[in-house]
Design a protein that fits this description.
The longest helix is centred in the middle third of the chain and has 17 residues. Strands 2-1-3-4-5-6 form a 6-stranded mixed β-sheet. It is built from 5 helices and 6 strands; from the N terminus they run βαβαβαβββαα. Helix 1 packs across helix 5 and helix 4 packs across helix 5. Strand 1, helix 1 and strand 2 form a beta-alpha-beta unit. With 204 residues, the protein is an alpha/beta fold.
Amino acid sequence: MSRRFEGGKIVIASHNQGKVKEIADLLAPYGADLVPASELGLPEPEETGQTFAENSEIKALGAAREAGLAALADDSGLVVAALDGAPGIHSARWAGPNKDFAAAMNRIEEALSESAAAGRPGRQAHFTCALTLAWPDGHVETFEGHVHGRLVWPPRGGKGFGYDPIFVAHGHDITFAEMGLEAKHAISHRAEALKRLVAACFEG
């Protein structure tokens, strides 16, 4: 049985303000007292895991132990079939130290063009999100969510962050960056992972 969160503060173990806002918006109905890691001066741990789940657990456990509070971390990224799953867990690293996602999106488009020229066309992709709720005693609860779709070019929209401007979810014709928050929250990988976490740790 999953461990329930019994109230108090939760550290959002991310320095990505877009993720912090999304997680805070999604958790707002559950009354959690959320504190961004940046407000506590917590360091960003080195992500040495080989999967999204491993990296989210590294981040959540690091924040929980540093702060002495429950901590929620996310590790997410874009998985492109024609690129053998890249950028995957390296999605943020493709943007470089300056978090230049415009450059990262260009890099993906160039790689897709090279792949197509080599006889491997295709623009199918999915976002994956692993969410981990960790406690200072080392207990973790991890849940994953996915949303499948295709990549478009050029980038469209200014409402999202990361790779949102080039991703169109199946069944839609606008990118995540063209969607309002409510529409994105209804289908996103992060929302799916959070629904599972909430059902197990907040409502169970």
